[in-house]
Write a structure and sequence with these properties.
The chain is α/β, with parallel strands linked by helices. It has one domain: Vaccinia Virus protein VP39 (Rossmann fold, 3-Layer(aba) Sandwich), CATH 3.40.50.150. The chain binds S-adenosylmethionine. The site of S-adenosylmethionine has 23 residues, from helix 1 and helix 6.
């Protein structure tokens, strides 16, 4: 791990919320969370069904590969659905790990017939594996993976990517990490860009900084900011 990322990790540990505060944040998320199925079906039932079929396929792929130790994935069904719905030419994500989110975005782009995904992670190998083991070989030509940590990757990516139409944040979950990334990414967002924050239950970042919707996914919460109001 790069020294800078290691330093950030230690600093974040020291500033993470107390168990009591975490319980309050969880309660806030629970109180605000909308059912994902109702959201998807209200926007586009056929596309939501397609996303559900993709989800089952990806989960099957996950079971067939050695992905233990990478940790859980993001809300891949929602990501697939949003990318199919909005058809971004440029998507950016932080946090690849096994690649649930990467594969969801890339598969949706393939179904759309266009788009490039720029991804940021750390230069690590888990059990000799690269980040993104779930990413199918046929999707890799539209994938640009950077592995020097967000602080190096984001400026490099944003200098090349063009306006970002879809942004998924799933790396350093601290408020400081989210704030830093947002300062970099925000000036490069297209006016109607969709932004998804994973694990919003980790601190008050989403409540205090964003205007958006909250969804429960498995045992966590996801925040969605969509300037178009997601046409709901
Ligand atoms: C929760 S996992 C991402 C899961 C992934 N989005 C998925 O759906 O499979 C978090 C990832 O963020 C990466 N990460 C943590 N801190 C980072 C940083 N400062 N810069 C880049 N990546 C970081 C970790 O290496 C890890 O792979």
């Amino acid at each position: 791990m790069k020294l800078r990322a290691l330093f950030d990790k230690v600093a974040n540990r020291l500033s993470s919320p107390s168990p009591k505060e975490l319980a309050a944040i969880w309660a806030w998320c629970e109180g605000r969370a909308e059912p994902l199925d109702a959201y998807g079906e209200s926007l586009d039932p056929a596309l939501w069904a397609e996303a559900a079929a993709f989800t089952r396929k990806l989960e099957e792929r996950g079971r067939s590969l050695d992905i233990e130790g990478f940790g859980g994935g993001a809300a891949y069904g929602l990501l697939y659905f949003l990318v199919r719905l909005r058809k971004p030419a440029v998507a950016l994500e932080t946090g690849v790990a096994a690649g649930w989110s990467s594969e969801a975005i890339l598969a949706a782009m393939a179904a759309n017939g266009g788009g490039v995904l720029w991804s940021s992670d750390l230069p690590y190998m888990r059990g000799g594996r690269e980040p993104g083991v779930l990413v199918s070989p046929e999707h890799r030509d539209r994938w640009r993976l950077f592995k020097q940590g967000d602080k190096d990757n984001l400026p490099a990516i944003l200098s090349e990517s063009g306006p970002v139409e879809f942004f998924h944040y799933d790396s350093d979950k601290s408020v400081a990490g989210r704030d830093w990334a947002w300062r970099q990414v925000r000036p490069h967002l297209a006016p109607d860009a969709v932004v998804v924050w994973d694990d919003v239950q980790d601190n008050w970042h989403f409540r205090d900084r964003m205007e958006g919707r909250v969804f429960r996914f498995q045992r966590k919460f996801v925040g969605l900011v969509d300037p178009t109001g997601a046409r709901s």
